[in-house]
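ugh finaly. both done.
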Amino acid sequence: MNRPLLVSDLDNTLIHSQKHRRPGDVCVEYRKGKEQGFTSPRALDLLREVIRTGRLVPVTTRSVEQYLRILWPDGVAPEYAVTTNGALLLWRGEIHPEWLGESQRAIAPYRAELERTLALATEQNRFVRCRMVDEMYVFAYCGPELDIREAAASFAGKTALTVIPSGRKLYFLPPSVSKGTALPRLKALLKADRVMSAGDSRIDLPMLALSERALVPPGGLAEELPAGVAEVAGEGEPFAEFVLRTALGWLGGEG
């Protein structure tokens, strides 16, 4: 059997925000009519080829609604996508009911804790917004005046959820569901025998650590992975282009 699979984070991995936009970048996402997400023309060409292999599964913390905003090349989206930090699987844009049921059972012991943590974060009145994402995890957005790591540390001992800062965002995640727990489920569903993964943040670590090859940007992320797993992008190449170029060769394509 030779069924490789590429699982990849989206934001700051395959696409990037207005903040990191470069001249010539192509818009691949709109929000309320405004340009939101971008990628380079080269990355878009590579993405088109990777999608054609049928072996790409995006794995993202985005909600279903946020994921569905993405404009895939030629209007052809990957057949499968995992959203909501591993909790939901989309098949041709629709929620997979068996996957949903399994995730709901895994999160059930943390349901009350999710509600309590959302209330706790909201009551602090120092976040721009707090919300429950697809009923699966809690999210808080911090303004520029707030130290994100100090904000994360302030929840130590106050919640049973895993608290991870990322950019201006705080994620409160049930330990029973993650990008890492999604990986063996995906391998079984798609009958994959080996996995390459790509990601840029600590939320991706559980997924990256379980892969045969893990593509990461320059920085300290590689040091948190098992020896011999990480492949680090070069300083001069955009991360999305590195990921897609490397993956295309690994999946049996060209480039």
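ok and the 2nd:
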Amino acid sequence: MRETNKDLENRNKIIKNIITEMRETNKDLENTNTKMIETNEELKFLMKNLENLNEKILIINKLI
């Protein structure tokens, strides 16, 4: 059975909507990735601060 012009137009609209949704999802994923990278950098900074604090505590404990 051959598809009518109307069928093809409807299919094309559906495909265009799917592509639009995929682009939006991709943009959301890019934003999420950026936030994760920023959070990772913040966590690295906090970890370094904790390591420094731990070293100071160890020194203080030796002095006590």
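summary for the 2nd one i guess: The chain has a mean pLDDT of 96.
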